[in-house]
Amino acid sequence: MFAILRTIRKPIRLLVLPIFALVLAAITAVEVFTYFESLLDWGKVLIPALLVMMVVKFWVVAAYFMHLKGDFKLFTHLFFGGLVLAVVVFSATLSAFEFWT
Q: In Å, how far from its chain's centre is CA 82?
């Protein structure tokens, strides 16, 4: 019975990776689209939208492609702690240069 479950799980895993690749490609396409300001004016939503897209892409890559979902929770906390720190430092830097006003 366990052999059957193992053979079923492997093709499902092989289907999940291309789906995540397509999701990452779609998010990257939206990020690239933000550079064309003549088509759509993002206004003050641009930087928060880019930050959210960055966090989602980091989460997908770290959790699935780096196999953090099966590792110790300490590694997951270290990776996402670094992500939170990076977003806080980036936001503080933008605030120091009065980027938001």
A: 13
Contact by Cβ (8 Å): 94, 100: yes
47: containing domain? 2-96
In this structure, how many other beta carbons lie within 10 angstroms of the beta carbon of residue 68? Answer: 19
Is residue 101, in this structure, part of any structural domain at all?
no
Task: State the burial class of residue 101 (Cβ atoms within 10 Å of its Cβ: 0-12, 13-18, 19+).
Answer: exposed
Under 8 Å between Cβ of 79 and 68: yes
Interaxial angle between packed helices 46-60 and 73-96, expressed in degrees from 0 to 180 and rounded to the nearest 10 = 160
Q: How far apart are CA 15 and CA 97, in angstroms?
A: 45
pLDDT tens, residue by residue, 39-88: 777 777 888 888 899 889 988 888 777 777 677 888 888 888 988 998 89
